[in-house]
Design goal:
The protein is an alpha/beta fold. The chain has nine helices and twelve strands. It has helices spanning 35-50, 69-82, 97-110, 120-127, 179-182, 197-207, 220-232, 264-269, 274-284; strands at residues 4-5, 13-14, 22-25, 54-59, 88-92, 113-116, 155-158, 165-169, 173-177, 186-189, 212-216, 240-244. It is globular. The structure holds glutamic acid (GLU).
Length: 305
């Protein structure tokens, strides 16, 4: 692994230099590594290596109630077994509390950040009646002007300015999203005091100087709000994006650890080789013919490298 140090305060650089392209592999240790993660690793390392870039390993353990050290240890071990070597990290969100608190202070100076005591249950009751199936319900702004003091049992939200966020996805083409109407005032910290995924990932991608975000297309709708929040935090050049396809069950459902899916551990125990697991993941999203093995060091070939 390379030695990483700050090239500017709060930023990463490779041996003190800025790297041409920096992406991140950012799993949450809430379960064991499964084929969906392997797809993400194939695309992350594949694009990074094909474009002469580096990969930072970031453990996204912002939600302490769902993350477990044994999942993190297993995840690191499975990743090493597969042969995906990060150029830097692991860095952990649980070690970044000061960075999030600083970002919150910066944001509060220029944006309307406020305390919110709405629970999931009251929000669901307030929004489902008007919401069609599968469409995200924007926060209705209940607490925006209540002037609540921040404190235990209260979350924090920020008002996102209205308008369209446009970006180019390297796989899906031009995108336009309106975060203020999609999600409403964005939750930064939840009622239990956990920094939210949206806030932590935006602060991290900014302070780590990530220039390419590679993730599943289930997170496409998050990108507009993260771009908007990043700009509010002072980011001038947004990263590039590649949202890859997801492996789906025959039923059309997304693969997830909770659904008892094919875990890397299970495949290993059944005698699979790393190359067969990587090849299978790549073929499941149409990047490789079925049945062909592929080594981690070869994944750039799937992206013209
Ligand atoms: N930690 C997220 C996950 O495991 C990925 C977040 C991202 O790539 O933005 O789904």
């Amino acid at each position: 692994m390379g030695a990483w140090e700050s090239s500017e305060p709060g930023r990463f650089g490779f041996n003190g230099r800025d790297v041409p392209l920096l992406t991140r592999f950012a799993p949450s240790p809430t379960g064991y590594l499964h084929l969906g993660h392997v797809v993400n690793a194939v695309c992350t390392w594949g694009l990074a290596r094909a474009r002469g870039g580096h990969v930072l390993l970031r453990i996204e353990d912002h939600d302490r109630s769902r993350c477990r050290p044994e999942y993190e240890a297993a995840l690191l071990e499975d990743l090493a077994w597969l042969g995906f070597e990060p150029d830097a990290g692991p860095v952990r969100q649980q070690d970044a509390g000061t960075a999030y608190a600083d970002a919150l202070t910066r944001l509060s100076a220029t944006a309307h950040v406020y305390a919110c005591d709405c629970s999931r249950r009251t929000l669901a009751a307030a929004t489902t009646a008007v919401q069609a199936d599968g469409i995200e319900a924007p926060y209705p702004g209940t607490c925006r002007n209540r002037g609540l003091e921040p404190g235990p049992g209260r979350g924090l939200r920020v008002v996102l300015p209205p308008g369209v966020e446009r970006f180019h996805d390297d796989r899906l083409g031009p995108q336009a999203q309106t975060p203020a109407t999609q999600c409403g005032d964005l939750l930064l910290r939840d009622r239990d005091g956990h920094w939210t995924y949206q806030f932590a990932v935006t602060v991290d991608d900014l302070r780590h100087n990530i220039s390419l975000v590679v993730r599943g297309e289930d997170l496409l709708a998050s990108t507009g709000r993260q771009l908007r929040l990043a700009r509010m935090l002072g980011r001038t050049t947004p990263p590039a994006f590649f949202h890859h396809a997801l492996i789906r069950h025959a039923s059309g459902q997304k693969l997830s650890k909770s659904a008892g899916d094919t875990g890397v551990r299970t495949l290993r125990a059944a005698g699979a080789s790393p190359e067969s697991v990587i090849g299978r993941a790549a073929s499941l999203i149409g990047l490789l013919e079925p049945g062909r093995p592929l080594a981690a060091r070869e994944v750039a070939s799937l992206f013209g490298g």
